[in-house]
Write a structure and sequence with these properties.
100 residues, Arc Repressor Mutant, subunit A, three-stranded antiparallel beta sheet, 6 helices, elongated, HTH-type transcriptional activator hxlR
Length: 100
Amino acid sequence: MLILWHLGREGTKRFSEQKALMPGITQRMLVNQLRELEEDLIVHREVYPVVPSKVEYSLTEYGKSLMPILESMYQWGKNYMETVLGQHPETTETKEVVNK
Protein backbone atom coordinates (compact mmCIF):
# COMPACT_ATOMS: atom_id res chain seq x y z
CA MET A 1 0.00 0.00 0.00
CA LEU A 2 2.87 2.36 0.70
CA ILE A 3 4.01 2.17 -2.92
CA LEU A 4 0.53 3.11 -4.10
CA TRP A 5 0.28 5.87 -1.50
CA HIS A 6 3.47 7.58 -2.67
CA LEU A 7 2.68 7.23 -6.37
CA GLY A 8 -0.85 8.50 -5.82
CA ARG A 9 0.08 11.44 -3.61
CA GLU A 10 3.38 12.46 -5.20
CA GLY A 11 3.08 11.24 -8.78
CA THR A 12 5.54 9.47 -11.05
CA LYS A 13 8.69 8.13 -9.39
CA ARG A 14 11.87 6.44 -10.46
CA PHE A 15 12.84 3.25 -8.66
CA SER A 16 15.51 4.98 -6.55
CA GLU A 17 13.07 7.71 -5.52
CA GLN A 18 10.51 5.14 -4.46
CA LYS A 19 13.17 3.17 -2.56
CA ALA A 20 14.29 6.31 -0.70
CA LEU A 21 10.73 6.84 0.53
CA MET A 22 10.71 3.35 2.08
CA PRO A 23 14.08 2.81 3.79
CA GLY A 24 12.94 -0.43 5.45
CA ILE A 25 12.18 -2.26 2.20
CA THR A 26 14.80 -4.33 0.41
CA GLN A 27 15.53 -3.72 -3.25
CA ARG A 28 14.32 -7.22 -4.10
CA MET A 29 11.02 -6.74 -2.28
CA LEU A 30 10.39 -3.40 -4.00
CA VAL A 31 11.15 -4.93 -7.41
CA ASN A 32 8.78 -7.82 -6.71
CA GLN A 33 6.00 -5.55 -5.48
CA LEU A 34 6.30 -3.21 -8.45
CA ARG A 35 6.22 -6.18 -10.84
CA GLU A 36 3.08 -7.55 -9.20
CA LEU A 37 1.38 -4.17 -9.31
CA GLU A 38 2.33 -3.83 -12.97
CA GLU A 39 0.98 -7.31 -13.76
CA ASP A 40 -2.25 -6.38 -11.97
CA LEU A 41 -2.50 -3.21 -14.14
CA ILE A 42 -2.34 -0.96 -11.09
CA VAL A 43 1.10 0.51 -11.83
CA HIS A 44 2.49 1.55 -15.21
CA ARG A 45 6.21 1.05 -15.89
CA GLU A 46 7.68 3.40 -18.49
CA VAL A 47 11.12 2.49 -19.89
CA TYR A 48 12.91 5.26 -21.76
CA PRO A 49 15.37 4.39 -24.56
CA VAL A 50 18.29 6.31 -23.06
CA VAL A 51 21.68 5.47 -21.60
CA PRO A 52 21.90 5.13 -18.67
CA SER A 53 18.51 3.47 -18.51
CA LYS A 54 15.59 5.41 -17.13
CA VAL A 55 12.48 3.72 -15.76
CA GLU A 56 9.56 5.51 -14.15
CA TYR A 57 6.54 4.18 -12.31
CA SER A 58 3.12 5.76 -12.09
CA LEU A 59 -0.41 4.73 -11.26
CA THR A 60 -2.69 3.61 -14.05
CA GLU A 61 -6.27 4.89 -14.13
CA TYR A 62 -7.23 1.68 -12.36
CA GLY A 63 -4.54 2.36 -9.75
CA LYS A 64 -5.74 5.93 -9.30
CA SER A 65 -9.20 4.60 -8.54
CA LEU A 66 -7.73 3.09 -5.34
CA MET A 67 -6.71 6.48 -3.94
CA PRO A 68 -10.07 7.34 -2.32
CA ILE A 69 -9.90 3.99 -0.49
CA LEU A 70 -6.32 4.62 0.64
CA GLU A 71 -7.22 8.17 1.71
CA SER A 72 -10.11 6.80 3.79
CA MET A 73 -7.85 4.20 5.40
CA TYR A 74 -5.26 6.87 6.17
CA GLN A 75 -7.87 9.14 7.74
CA TRP A 76 -9.33 6.29 9.77
CA GLY A 77 -5.88 5.32 11.06
CA LYS A 78 -5.02 8.90 11.90
CA ASN A 79 -8.27 9.38 13.82
CA TYR A 80 -7.83 6.06 15.60
CA MET A 81 -4.29 6.88 16.70
CA GLU A 82 -5.32 10.34 17.91
CA THR A 83 -8.05 8.69 19.98
CA VAL A 84 -5.63 6.13 21.41
CA LEU A 85 -3.12 8.85 22.28
CA GLY A 86 -5.87 10.90 23.88
CA GLN A 87 -6.83 8.00 26.14
CA HIS A 88 -3.29 6.78 26.83
CA PRO A 89 -0.89 9.75 26.64
CA GLU A 90 1.84 7.85 28.50
CA THR A 91 2.16 5.25 25.73
CA THR A 92 5.43 6.09 23.97
CA GLU A 93 5.10 3.24 21.50
CA THR A 94 1.85 4.73 20.21
CA LYS A 95 3.46 8.16 19.88
CA GLU A 96 6.22 6.69 17.73
CA VAL A 97 3.69 5.15 15.34
CA VAL A 98 1.70 8.38 14.98
CA ASN A 99 4.77 10.52 14.42
CA LYS A 100 6.12 8.38 11.55
